[in-house]
């Protein structure tokens, strides 16, 4: 992996494959608005699932989960409201998840899925 962008893209690809394997349907990836970006928007049955994906190759800058701060979750929440409005979706049950991926240059990739954060 050459850059943080490459690592992020690979992490999001891995997260989407995992989510599809778990039975979710991917609706959108990397959706941007003034409030921020949604990494993945999916459905799990009738529930909308907004997923923040964090991928790190090492822990020098902290673990992937440590990068998901309360401020980040608030930006994700605001962006999700914008996504709903932009797609003219009314009342719907929403779940916010985090997928944290540790992808060391050598060694086993570890994916952690936290539901309902």
UniProtKB/TrEMBL annotation:
One of its GO terms (molecular function) is nucleic acid binding. It comes from the Bacteria. Pfam families: UPF0102. Keywords: Endonuclease, Hydrolase, Nuclease. InterPro entries: Restrct_endonuc-II-like (IPR011335), tRNA_endonuc-like_dom_sf (IPR011856), UPF0102_YraN-like (IPR003509). The keyword Hydrolase applies. The keyword Hydrolase applies. Belongs to the UPF0102 family. HAMAP family: UPF0102. This is UPF0102 protein B0I31_101413. It comes from Saccharothrix carnea. The lineage of its organism: Bacteria, Bacillati, Actinomycetota, Actinomycetes, Pseudonocardiales.
């Amino acid at each position: 992996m050459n850059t943080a962008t490459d690592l992020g893209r690979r992490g999001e690809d891995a997260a989407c494959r995992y989510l599809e394997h778990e039975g979710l349907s991917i609706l959108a990836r990397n959706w941007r608005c003034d409030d921020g970006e949604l990494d993945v928007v999916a459905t799990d049955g009738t529930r909308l699932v907004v997923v923040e994906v964090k991928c790190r190759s090492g822990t020098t800058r902290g673990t992937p989960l440590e990068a998901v701060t309360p401020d980040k979750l608030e930006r994700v929440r605001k962006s999700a409201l914008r996504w709903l409005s932009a797609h003219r979706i009314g009342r719907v049950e929403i779940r916010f998840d985090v997928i944290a991926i540790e992808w060391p240059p050598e060694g086993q990739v570890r994916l952690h899925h936290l539901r309902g954060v």
